[in-house]
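Troubleshooting entry. The earlier prediction with L-homoserine gave an output that would not parse, so I re-checked the input for stray whitespace and re-submitted. Clean input:
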Amino acid sequence: MNKVCKIGFLGMGTVAGGVWKHLWENREEMRRRFGCDFELSKVCVRDVSKPRDVPVPAELLTSNPLDVVDDPDIDVVCELMGGVDEAYKLTMRAFENGKSVVTANKALLCHRGGELFAAARKADCGYFFEASVAGGIPIIKIIREGLIANRFSRIYGILNGTCNYILTRMEREGASYEAILADAKKLGYVEQDESLDVDGFDTAHKAAVLAYIAHGKWVPLEDMIIEGIRSVTLDDMLWARDFDYRIKLVANIECDFASRKLSVRVYPALLPLSGIVSNVNGVFNAVAIDGDVVGESVFVGRGAGREATASAVISDIADAAKRLRGAPDLEFKSDDMGLSMASLKDMPGNFYMRFCVRDEAGILAQITSLFAEAGVSIEQLKQSKRAGDDRAHIVLTTHKTNEQSIEKLKSSLAETSALCGEPFVLRIFKK
Ligand code: NAP
Ligand code: HSE
């Protein structure tokens, strides 16, 4: 056997705890699979006195992250602490000190990935990030290695386990959003800042990583559409069912190779009930890939939680250990493919809309004239009444239109006195 690979941890929370547990409990078998000996060295946490549910010897714990990134004996740093600024500084310092880094930190990659990958290359260090997207699905390896023959016109799917868990249980049980979110926290699915999950940013961070590995371009959040699930109601889910759809939080990365335009969008969308992705429920993620050689492939697996994420991190640690033994790095796609960002306001699509109106003669005529003015054609429309409510509830789907026309329509609807409140709009995901 070669040199012992020494592994240091920044963080020992949900994910790192799973990594530690499996490496520790199965160390002999893991050594055999890694093809090298390894040692679990230092562990940095915020609070060294906090009880841990994994057997980390007290003498390995520190609250000073420099004890990990500056330790000359440590070969591989697992950055599993989260956050952006501190994690960025420590990762840079680890590279300066010649260490490879394994991370699950998609927020950090999205915000600072360009600089970090450049620094890793300059310092001749590995930077591994399998766990940053889609939990236990080895989607980074799938795209970079398994599907190397392909160009990707579309990569879409469910990239946030927390949101899928919430939407699934809302739809199945009618349980309250708050109660389900509390359960998701107990299960270790939710980010330290829960708004990253429910407001769509975590999905956007992951979409940025996928866009980078697929197309060699870091897309900033400002160039994406990002919407979360907070405003989706159980009624929307039931209406969607009526129209043969299910609502999921979707990331959609499209590349038109003819015009060389790339777009990245994250939004709750109505997906056809007959598709694979709409039937992926609970904490599971699904990534559907349209490759020009392979055609469409869909990958499904647990998208969050200790064990699934640990599986991906351990695969990266094995790669980092192989690199120490001289395995070459994979090349990234470079940013010279001449792609520019598509104009988001011109993106075509079908939409779902719900609003309430005063239940009076002529109101629908008023509303439909606004649709005509905006050039938006209605495909299906349903109206319902509720006991004790003198308003009429309208839900509809549109024929193909575009973002700009829908925005214009929303503004003119919001201005008319026929509506009680603002219209609520979701996109319909069609192939
Ligand atoms: P977590 O349970 O909150 O654990 C974070 C760990 O980092 C804790 O041990 C904490 O110490 C330590 N820590 C945080 N800030 C620190 C600082 N400034 N100095 C020293 N230690 C610090 O988080 P997690 O769920 O494991 O997530 C870790 C990373 O994995 C994040 O980037 C997250 O986005 C990503 N991720 C999570 C999942 C998931 O399902 N949870 C899945 C994929 C990716 P204490 O224990 O003392 O508080
Ligand atoms: N909070 C994230 C999610 C963790 O729920 O998907 C996995 O990245």
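This one parsed fine. Residues 11-16, 44-47, 50, 65, 80-82, 86, 104-105, 131, 135, 188-189, 191-192, 304-305, 309 surround NAP (ligand 1) (CB under 6 Å).
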